[in-house]
Amino acid sequence: MAVQNSLQITSSSSSANDDDGRSKRTGTAWSAVSHIITAIIGSGVLSLAWSVSRLGWIAGPVFLLFCAIVTYFCSILLSDCYRTLDPVSGKRNYSYRDAVRTYLGPKRTWLAGFCQYLNLCGTSIAYVITTATSLRAILKSNCYHKYGHHARCHYGETLFMVLFGVVQFFMSFIPDLHNMAWVSIVAAIMSFSYSFIGLGLGIAKVIENGTIKGSITGVPTSNAVEKLWLVFQALGDVAFAYPYSVILLEIQDTLKSPPPENQTMKKASMISVLVTTFFYLCCGCFGYAAFGSNTPGNLLTGFGFYEPFWLVDFANACIVVHLVGGYQIYSQPIYAAADRYSSRRFPNSTFVNKVYQVKLPLLPVFQLSLFRLCFRTVYVIFTTGIGILFPYFNQVLGVLGALNFWPLTVYFPVEMYFVQKKIGAWTTKWIVLRSFSFVCFIISVLGLAGSIEGIIKAKLSS
Question: What is the CATH number of domain 29-338+349-461?
Answer without folding.
Answer: 1.20.1740.10
